C-alpha cells in the first residue's frame, strides 16, 4: 500500500481538501474567476459544481463547470433570464391550477402529484452582494417564514448584501440570514411579513434506496418552479461543493439523474409523495476538452444533502441561530493500493477526543457502519452525516487484522 499525504484533515474532522482540477469555464469558454473544478471522488471522472447561477455583468453562464460559490444571474444578457423569472407571476397560478387537475384527474402521474404537493414549499432566493447578484432556490420550513437554502447561495454575491425571496404566490419578501452551517453547505433565512407559507414535509432519507423516484424543484437559470424528474442513482456519494478551501463543505450526498442546473441550489429533491428527501446542492459536468468552447452542462449527475441531515441542522439554526456537527477527533490521509483508494489512515488522534479510547495513529478506517470508506474525505462525510452524541461502529484495519470499534461522536463546537 502507498499513502497519499496532503493538507486534507484537521483534528476535529472538519473539511478535507481534494485535488485542484482545471479552471471552470462558462458556455463561451471563458474562465470563471476564482473557481476551480474538483473530482467528486477518485472513482468519478467528472467535476462537481454547486448548482447555482453566476454573473458579474457579463452574459448568463449556461454551462457552468467546477465548484461555484454563489447563485448569480444578474446583469448583461442575464437580464433576459431574469425577465423570464420575473414573469413567473403566472407560476403561482399555474401551480394552483395544476393542483386542481391533480385532484380530479385519474391519469395523474407520480411526478405530477409530487410536484403539485411540493411546489408551494419551494421558493426562489435572490442575493445582491459586494461582487454580484443572482438567484438560487430554497425550501419553506415554517408558515411564518423560515426557509432553508444552501450556504453557497447566500455567499454567492460575495456576502454582505441584500437577500430577497419570492414565494409561489409571486410575493417578494425581504429576508435575513438566521444562521449558517458552512461545513454542510446549509443556511436558514427568515422572511419578513410572511405568515401563511406552506411548510415542506421531510421524509426519512435513511429509507431512500437506489432506483426510487426523485423529483427536483427549483429555479434553474432563474426559471422559478421548474420541475425535473429521475431516480436516486446512488447514496453515500462524497462531494465537496465548496472547492479547495480548508473549510469547504463535505457532504455524504444522494446522487440523482433528475436534471439539476445552475439555480437549483437550495431547492427540493422530493419523493413520489412530494416529501423532501434532499436539498439540491451540486452538479457534475464534463470539463471542456482541447478546442472545445465549454462544458457539456447537465449530464444527469446531481447531488443533494440528505433530508435527515438538512432538517436536523435547520431545526438547530431556527432554535439557536447556530448548529453543530459531529467530530471523531482524528486527522487522516488516503491509503491507496496502486491507483485504488482503500481506506483512511489515521495520522493523528487527538487526546481526549472520541477516537482516543480505541483508535491510534496508523489504524486504517475502511467503514463507518455500513458506509464504505475509501478516502479520508469519505471518513469526513460519514462522520458529518451523523449527529453529535451518535454512536457509530468503525471498521478498522490494524496491521493485517480487521476489527470493529464503537465510538460516540463528539460535538464540533465544544
Automatic annotation (TrEMBL):
**Chain ranges passing through the membrane:** 64-84
Please give the Pfam families that the UniProt record associates with this protein: PDZ_2, Trypsin_2
Q: Where is this region: Disordered?
A: 1-55
* UniProt keywords, alphabetically: Hydrolase, Membrane, Protease, Transmembrane, Transmembrane helix
One Gene Ontology term from the biological process aspect of the record: proteolysis
Kindly give the SMART domains that the UniProt entry links to this protein. Answer: PDZ
Basic and acidic residues biased stretches = 1-13
Family annotation (Gene3D superfamilies) = 2.30.42.10, 2.40.10.120
Q: Which SUPFAM superfamilies match?
A: PDZ domain-like, Trypsin-like serine proteases
Taking the record's annotation, the residue ranges forming a coiled coil are none
Please indicate which superkingdom the organism of origin belongs to.
Bacteria
Domain PDZ stretches: 314-400
Q: Which GO terms describe its molecular function?
A: serine-type endopeptidase activity
**Which protein is depicted?**
Putative serine protease PepD
